[in-house]
Design goal:
The complex is a heterodimer of chains A (about 260) and B (about 300). Helices cover about 75% and strands about 0% of the residues of chain A. By secondary structure, chain A is an all-alpha fold. Classes of the chains: A mainly alpha (about 260), B alpha/beta (about 300).
């Protein structure tokens, strides 16, 4: 399942284009919520709550929070697109069934969808980075030119979370099943991945458990590139995300083949 | 060229212990309209799903436009157009864009796509709706848009699974008319239906499927002559009243009885004296035999279960 080339062709690009076409039609309405989100969070958490927080490192709280925002919201974008969105297209609208009557293969379809989830994740990260840069004079959250690496990180984690959500969608039988994905996978990661507080504050065992959460690694990478504190150990985080991306990608392909071709 | 649009040999498909398609063989000739006829659960849709590469072949051999569906699914899918039973238009895109996005999957270029989309919208009388969201279209329009979509890449074979199910009579007749026009243009068609009148209206050749097997094959006319004969007399009365009438019929008459209704199959000359004796069209209707009668004769009482 994990080795051998997937059966991918141009069809994957056409699937991506379909999503892009839809996005071009609806982006104005969608971007209102997405556009406001980081401003509200930065205002509430960074400036509001942040005044009560004193960090051992001497950083301002907003400086600590920024790398987390750059990982969490892009994660939501990818998971929403390839979780709920994919399930709608699979079951409710049967768009997948229609695509499969064209020369496109299941692998094309799923790869195109995951690449679109990756794109949404990257767009979201880009936007938050721009907001942080605009607020730079007040927050000083972006402290190194290496911050540009937030984008490849967003691509890598975007691909992984998209594939994870797609694997889940291939197993879900009803929209309500996504409650498990949200409550058991997404929310614990959101709160416990070191975005809101240093993981060192947790007991040892919890830190060890946290290592298994994918979001921990992208938060860690974002923190390093925003501060310019690049060190060799970060390669382990990159490897974690890369392996996770590949495993979930192959799982999504295999599970969707099983679901769609019967 | 002796090439067939579909060439199925001993085609099989099982789901667990259920045999959905039990070794069927048939060919669809280029240029004809071919019908798979049968009640729900006969194996029609499963057969169609194997032909359209949506379901792996469970056994036997299946060539579509001359290519093996298992070996070359991408090639086969590029040469056939599929109209699904359950509507699956893209609700996130307006009418015209539905066709354009679908055409792109076939590797068509921008100019080609625009030209073909215009053509299809005009042929199916949807040009006035090009910019409308698909969920504002009527049932008949949506069905026509599905057929237009399936034709966008000029396929060699058009596969339609229950093309008019759920449509009102007017919409149904419009779809039939358009399918006949496509047939005149030489578009090979394979359709499934459980409407006998639809098969009689559209198909050059038919196979009747029941419980995964083929019961009969031929043109609608041949099937009616062979299995139902010339005429049918429907008798609606209790069996006790009916029996003396049946006995009085001359010549060879076959009888199928379902409770208070009996169907007498035979030549008109043999049946018309009986009809005259009943003297009431409602209780004794003499009419030409049709495909529905073929169906009743071939599948018998099982249909009523």
């Amino acid at each position: 399942m994990l080795i051998g080339a997937p059966d991918v062709s141009n069809g994957a690009v056409h699937v991506w284009q379909r999503n892009f076409d839809v996005f071009r039609r609806v982006w104005r309405t969608e971007s209102l919520g997405i556009g406001l989100e980081p401003w509200i969070v930065i205002l509430a958490m960074g400036f509001g709550l942040g005044r009560f927080v004193e960090l051992d490192s001497g950083e301002e709280y907003i400086q600590f929070l920024a790398p987390g925002l750059l990982a969490m919201f892009p994660m939501f974008a990818a998971i929403f697109e390839c979780g709920w969105g994919a399930f709608m297209r699979l079951e409710t609208h049967r768009t997948y069934e229609a695509v499969l009557t064209t020369p496109a293969s299941v692998d094309d379809l799923i790869t195109g969808e995951i690449l679109w989830g990756t794109t949404r994740s990257a767009l979201n990260a880009t936007y938050i980075l721009v907001v942080l840069l605009i607020l730079g004079p007040w927050t000083e959250a972006v402290r190194s030119p290496w911050a540009i690496l937030v984008l490849p990180i967003a691509v890598l984690q975007g691909f992984m979370f998209s594939a994870l959500a797609m694997s889940f969608a291939s197993l879900a039988r009803a929209m309500t099943h996504f409650g498990y994905l949200f409550n058991v996978v997404v929310m614990p990661m959101f709160w416990l991945s070191g975005g809101f507080f240093p993981l060192e504050n947790l007991p040892d065992w919890a830190q060890r458990v946290a290592w298994f959460m994918p979001l921990v690694h992208s938060v860690e990478l974002n923190r390093a590139v925003l501060t310019g504190d690049l060190r060799p150990e970060l390669l382990i985080d990159v490897a974690w995300l890369a392996v996770g991306a590949w495993v979930f990608y192959r799982a999504a392909l295999a599970l969707m083949r099983r679901r769609l071709i019967v | 060229m002796g090439r067939f649009a579909v060439d199925a040999v001993e085609l099989r498909k099982e789901f667990g212990s259920t045999v959905a398609v039990d070794g069927v063989s048939f060919v669809v000739h280029d240029g004809e309209c071919f019908g798979l006829l049968g009640p729900n659960g006969a194996g029609k849709t499963t057969t169609i799903r194997m032909i359209t590469c949506a379901s792996p072949v469970g056994g036997g051999r299946l060539l579509v436009t001359g290519h093996d569906v298992t070996e070359e699914p991408r090639l086969v899918k590029s040469r056939i157009g599929v109209v699904p039973q359950d509507e699956n238009l893209d609700p996130d895109l307006p009418t015209r864009k539905n066709l354009e996005v679908y055409a792109r999957y076939f590797g068509l270029s921008g100019a080609e796509i625009r030209e073909r989309v215009d053509e299809q919208l005009e042929f199916f009388e949807l040009d006035g709706k090009a910019k409308e969201p698909v969920n504002t279209l009527s049932g008949g329009m949506r069905r026509r848009l599905l057929i237009a979509r399936a034709l966008i890449h000029q396929p060699q074979l058009l596969v339609l699974d229950e093309p008019t199910v759920g449509l009102d009579p007017q919409a149904r007749h419009l779809v039939w008319e358009q399918l006949r026009r496509l047939r005149e243009r030489g578009v090979t068609q394979l359709l499934t239906t459980h409407y006998m009148d639809e098969a009689a209206q559209l198909c050059d050749r038919i196979v009747v499927m029941h419980r995964g097997s083929i019961l009969a094959e031929g043109s609608p006319r041949e099937l009616v002559q062979e299995h139902a004969g010339e005429s049918v007399l429907e008798l609606r009365m209790p069996a006790s009243e009916r029996e003396p009438l049946v006995a009085a019929a001359g010549g060879e008459v076959a009888v199928e009885a379902y409770g208070d209704v009996a169907y007498l199959f035979g030549e008109q000359a043999a049946l018309s004296p009986v009809a005259t004796r009943v003297g009431d069209h409602f209780r004794g209707l003499l009419r030409p035999a049709n495909l529905e009668d073929v169906f009743l004769r071939l599948t018998g009482r099982e249909l009523l279960e």
